[in-house]
Design a protein that fits this description.
Elements: H1 3-9, H2 16-30, E1 36-39, H3 47-50, E2 57-63, E3 69-71, E4 77-78, E5 85-86, E6 90-92, H4 95-100, E7 107-113, E8 116-127, H5 130-133, E9 138-144, E10 152-157, H6 164-186, H7 198-210
Parallel strand pairs: 1-2
Antiparallel strand pairs: 2-10, 3-6, 4-5, 7-8, 8-9, 9-10
Length: about 210
């Protein structure tokens, strides 16, 4: 419900990210013992969603190229000036700087991208993104885009053990769903459905989706 409508009816307005969090929690209640794969764009790669993922949910999404990244320290180290034991994570270059770093070479692989085989240049790392995801380690994959407005795409996955191929292909799966939503609203009239009875409402979405 839009914010203006909530003000008229006295209802509480929720942002899309808050609704997404509630939806994920509801799905996990329906499937308590099943693993859940959640794929979303950068709008949902935020604190509201990433910091409240239920156990058993793996999130794959995209992040901005100037995100602040850190990695945990693997050994004890003292400050050369104060002598104090340093415990904070080590600050890493942001993805944009990593992409420009010639010391970190681009890797190549061929994968299925929107139904076609394409060669992709990528870099990968495991790091933390405190601002949005908190302490859990993330698998982060940088992909060079030869054409288009964005020269670089950065993908993330909350399962840091996954390969770069798995992360990229998982993110590509969402495109078919995006096209489905567009066609449902623009071609099938889903957004202007006049169904009113409970049974008609329950039948409309599955039937149009099947069509």
């Amino acid at each position: 419900m839009a914010q203006a409508d909530c003000q008229k009816t006295g209802g509480k307005h929720l942002k899309k990210t808050q609704l997404a969090r509630q939806l994920v929690e509801q799905v996990k209640r329906w499937l308590p013992d099943k693993p859940v794969e959640l794929v979303a764009d950068s709008a949902y790669s935020c604190r509201e969603v990433l910091r409240h993922l239920p156990p058993g949910v793996v999130f794959t999404g995209s992040m901005c190229a100037n995100a602040t990244l850190q990695r945990p320290r693997t050994r004890k180290y003292r400050s050369p000036t104060t002598g104090r034991l340093l415990t904070r994570d080590i600050r890493l270059p942001n993805p944009e700087k990593i992409a420009r770093d010639k010391k970190v070479p681009w890797l190549c692989m061929t994968l299925t991208f929107h139904g076609e085989l394409k060669q992709v240049q990528y870099k990968e790392l495991v790091a933390r993104w405190y601002r949005s995801a908190g302490k859990p380690l993330l698998k982060i994959v940088l992909v060079k885009v030869p054409r288009g407005q964005l020269p670089l795409r950065v993908f993330l996955c909350t399962d840091c053990t996954r390969t770069a191929r798995q992360v990229i292909e998982s993110y590509c799966w969402r495109w078919a769903i995006e096209v489905l939503f567009r066609d449902l609203k623009q071609l099938m009239g889903f957004s202007s459905s006049r169904a009113r009875s409970r049974l008609a409402v329950l039948r409309t979405a599955p039937w149009l989706g099947l069509c």
